[in-house]
Amino acid sequence: MSGFMGIMLGLVVLASLVLVPTIGTYVDQRQQIAALQHDVKATQDEIAELTAERERWRDESYIVAQARERLYYRRPGEVVYLVADDRPADVIEPEQRPVSGSVQETQRDWMTQFLRSVTEAGLAKTVAPG
User: What Rg do the C-alpha atoms of the chain give, in angstroms?
Assistant: First the structure.
């Protein structure tokens, strides 16, 4: 191996030691730029939505419709009917189904269960999340 080849090999190693951290920094900065550009795009979309909503609120008919829908306002002389549970019966959640007319016997004594619940709650050292 000649002296020239050793010097060139040393320069290549030195150049790689100098450039590797710089390339890593460059890649990190490119990722940050991409993330910030994504944030800018999301903010621009939000601004566009808010601008469209502001334009809707400038329309008097939209304001009237929102006042009727949200606040149940009406014009003088109008009769408004509010319909409760206008959904079909199969869409109603189980908690909202009608109560059964038949009486059912429970498996446990409710008073014992109630007292156990109260004493466990009173003797608990911490509050369970829930």
Answer: 36
DSSP annotation of 96 reads G
3 compared with 130, residue with greater pLDDT: 3
Segment 46-74 mean pLDDT = 92
| Burial classification of residue 5, based on how many CB atoms lie within 10 Å of its CB (0-12 exposed, 13-18 middle, 19 or more buried) | exposed
pLDDT of residue 128: 56
Contacts of 72 (CB under 8 A, 6+ apart): 80, 82
More confident: 40 or 109: 40
Q: How far apart are CA 11 and CA 15, in angstroms?
A: 6
Structure tokens at 95: 């908690």
Cβ atoms within 10 A of the Cβ of 16, count?
A: 10
Handedness of CA 41, 43, 47, 52 (dihedral sign): positive
